[in-house]
Amino acid sequence: MLRGTVTASVWATKRIDGIPGGAFLEVELDGGGRMVAFDVLGTGMGERVLVVQGSVAASWFTARQVPPPIDALIIGSIDDPQ
Amino acid sequence: MLRGTVTASVWATKRIDGIPGGAFLEVELDGGGRMVAFDVLGTGMGERVLVVQGSVAASWFTARQVPPPIDALIIGSIDDPQ
Amino acid sequence: MLRGTVTASVWATKRIDGIPGGAFLEVELDGGGRMVAFDVLGTGMGERVLVVQGSVAASWFTARQVPPPIDALIIGSIDDPQ
Amino acid sequence: MLRGTVTASVWATKRIDGIPGGAFLEVELDGGGRMVAFDVLGTGMGERVLVVQGSVAASWFTARQVPPPIDALIIGSIDDPQ
Amino acid sequence: MLRGTVTASVWATKRIDGIPGGAFLEVELDGGGRMVAFDVLGTGMGERVLVVQGSVAASWFTARQVPPPIDALIIGSIDDPQ
């Protein structure tokens, strides 16, 4: 898993079928680089997140017979250090 | 997912079986680098796109019993910021 | 597989469903870079580990019909050289 | 998909079972780096090719119940620009 | 596939279940970098090898209902140039 910070929303009105309910979020990765991850948690700007990549991001959507075309999923928000 | 801009078409007349209808497009990635992604949306030159990588690109083609030999798929066009 | 050293725990109270019992651990990779790997072995801080990446990390959880959203798993502790 | 140029053959007489008929070819990637891709098209030295990576390279071999241990496949020769 | 040279054995006595018979070997990759690959061929130190990565490394172990937690497999020894 990678860690990063949500920095923006990404909108794609023209899209292929099969993308589930949720949001595309830009994530600035710890260590550098940016990616777009799918979010179903309602994650907000500036939140620190844990992102999973690859086919497991798609196979999480178990109600669907066909995995959606998603290759990065926010699986949680990282707790603040105490 | 990665973001980039479509910069060229790529043609491969001599090819293996099983490649679905669509186009190979060169995508210049945000942050640097180029890749070739498969397109079924009729995306044009200069369009900003969202690209999914890996086996989920192939498993999207659900009408096919065998996933096609495609490892990158344009899943949408990124909306212009307003 | 990659090798690295466990350097911290990562906590994510707000998370999606389906994450199995275990811990998220920060691993500093040999050769540079950091990642978060899932641990079911009770690995401690400073332990040297072997990490597997990708869908095989998820499919190891065989009791589950749906593979968990995990893309990196600690598969063992590297023995000290003798 | 990646683009590159075939630069050499790679021979491996001592090998595991399950590798299909075809050739291992060294491909010099556009943008730098080299990899070994599997070829079933009879691609020759110097040909420009399109390479797919990951599990889709293996699942293309549909006549086989078990996907072969192949993670990169030449899916076509890139046409010369006209 | 990647090419490299076997440089060391890696031992992990404390490990998760499901790792098949074979050895973990350190491979120094052509072009730089090191990884740990699983070996079932009895490959020796200094041998030049071809390594496959990802889920196909695991799915090669066909006698197992559950693919083992292995993401890199030595599929052959590269023949010496003649």
UniProtKB/TrEMBL annotation, chains A, B, C, D, E:
Q: Which InterPro entries match?
A: EutN_CcmL, EutN_CcmL_sf
Task: Give the chief site where it resides.
Answer: other
- Report keywords, A-Z: Bacterial microcompartment, Carboxysome
Q: Which Gene3D superfamilies match?
A: EutN/Ccml
**Pfam families referenced in this protein's UniProt entry, alphabetically:** EutN_CcmL
Source superkingdom: Bacteria
Query: Would the keyword Lyase be found if you checked this record's keyword annotation?
Result: no
What species is given as this protein's source? Microtetraspora fusca
The identity of this protein, by name, is EutN/CcmL family microcompartment protein
Q: Where in the cell is it found?
A: Carboxysome
